[in-house]
Design goal:
Mean pLDDT: 87
Order of helices and strands: HEEEEEEEEEHEEHEEEEEEEEEEE
CATH superfamily: Porin
CATH class: Mainly Beta
InterPro entries: Porin_alphabac (IPR003684)
Family: Belongs to the alphaproteobacteria porin family.
Radius of gyration: 30 Å
CATH architecture: Beta Barrel
Shape: globular
Number of domains: 1
CATH topology: Porin
Number of strands: 22
GO molecular function, one term: porin activity
Low-confidence stretches: 3-8, 10-23
Number of helices: 3
Strand content: over 45%
Pfam families: Porin_2
Structural class: mainly beta
GO biological process, one term: monoatomic ion transport
Strand order of the largest sheet: 2-5-6-8-9-10-11-12-13-14-15-18-19-20-21-22
């Protein structure tokens, strides 16, 4: 074999080998498995680590649709949409439909000063053919470090003793106003004893149908100077239940209110609760006009952010019975010094995990001799479809 032939053969072999190695070099290897989401179960189900941080995040919420018919158990006998207090029937001409989407974010992490948390709740609503007035509402948004909480939340006058019963129409006789800016501190002891002190700004979101010329002082409103509303409370909780007392001073109206509540776990399936409230503020009454613009009666108006029931005192009570893992029966009754009586019962049935259907029936009877509602009653039925996540 000639030298020329050997050189050509060697060159071809080299080029072929180089081409093969070059082709192998550009083939991407299979990516290794990467854990993009790390579960953070130290704070409960649903939390995961935000990538690149030690902060745990939980995203939740619900979508619900309510259908309501019959009379309006919340009826106050008037509306003020025209700037006057005009008589209004509690009867609905057709059913109401309300759709709501609530999106909730919770974060948690550990620091040298304790557990650092945030919570926010965004709410969007549609009712009877139009966006509801609370659409796009920030229902809650606060920061919590240990026992210190700053931001927007329901008043400690409501949250510390617990809301009311597990019924949808639980606040026909209202046990305190709702959202407020606040700075609060909660002490939690090892023996079941806890205490809270909250400085609050007040709010207006729970006040509807305010007639023209009726000032915020009569209805309860946001503070107007640097003196905050003050809420304080004590609770003792054990496996059998709890006892809670809470008191509030309304700095704007210069009135106070208090509540005492007891919860009892009779069995693992059956629980009962009762609560009483007393307030210092006296109710106001405003004239209601008929079709001929003549005064035909009055309606009660509240002058406190906290003592929102009729008359000096009010009582509430309720029960819950877990019939089986999917079904809970709830009931609640309430009565106040204006002789208003309210009762509600429902059955919450979890059709599949995360999807609950709840039919409910409510009844209200008014016997306020000063009010246009005296002697009237209302029966209301509703059903709620809710997908929680």
């Amino acid at each position: 074999m000639s030298l020329k032939t050997i050189l050509i053969s060697s060159s071809a072999t080299f080029l072929i080998s180089s081409g093969a190695y070059a082709a192998d070099a550009v083939v991407s290897p299979e990516p290794e498995a990467v854990e993009y989401v790390r579960v953070c179960d130290a704070y409960g189900a649903g939390y995961f680590y935000i990538p690149g941080t030690e902060t745990c995040l939980k995203i939740g919420g619900y979508v619900r649709y309510d259908l309501t018919g019959g009379n309006d158990v919340y009826g106050r006998g008037f509306d003020a949409s025209s700037g006057k207090a005009l008589a209004k029937s509690n009867k609905r001409d057709t059913y109401e439909g309300l759709a709501r989407f609530s999106l909730k974010f919770s974060t948690t992490s550990e620091t040298e000063l304790g557990t650092l948390k945030t919570y926010s709740d965004l709410r969007f609503q549609w009712k009877d053919g139009a966006d509801a007035k609370s659409t796009g509402t920030l229902r809650a948004g606060y920061i919590q470090l240990g026992g210190l909480k700053v931001g927007l939340d329901d008043s400690a006058f409501i949250t510390f003793p617990g809301y009311l019963g597990n019924v949808m129409n639980d606040d026909v006789i209202l046990a305190g106003s709702g959202r407020t800016g606040q700075i609060s501190y909660t002490f939690t002891g090892d023996n079941g004893l806890s205490a809270i002190l909250s400085l609050e700004q007040g709010g207006k979101d729970d006040v509807d149908d305010v007639p023209a010329g009726w000032t915020g002082k009569q209805w309860g409103a946001v503070i107007k100077d640097y003196t905050p509303h003050v809420v304080g409370g004590l609770r003792y909780a054990q496996g059998w239940g709890s006892l809670t007392a809470v008191a509030a001073y309304d700095a704007y109206n210069k009135e106070w209110a208090g509540k005492i509540r007891g919860d009892l776990n009779v069995t693992d399936s059956f629980s009962v609760w009762a609560m009483g409230g007393y307030k210092s503020n006296k109710d106001n009454y405003i004239d209601v006009l008929g079709d001929d613009n003549q005064v035909i009666g009055q309606v009660r108006a509240i002058s406190s952010f906290y003592g929102t029931w009729g008359g000096d005192w009010a009582v509430w009570g309720g029960a819950a019975y877990k019939l089986n893992p999917q079904t809970v029966i709830n009931a609640q009754m309430a009565y106040d010094a204006s002789k208003t009586f309210a009762a509600t019962a429902n059955i919450a049935y979890e059709l599949v995990p995360g999807f609950t259907i709840t039919p409910e029936v409510s009844y209200t009877k008014w016997k306020d001799t000063k009010s246009i509602q005296n002697g009237k009653d209302a029966v209301q039925g509703m059903i709620r479809f809710q997908r929680s996540f």
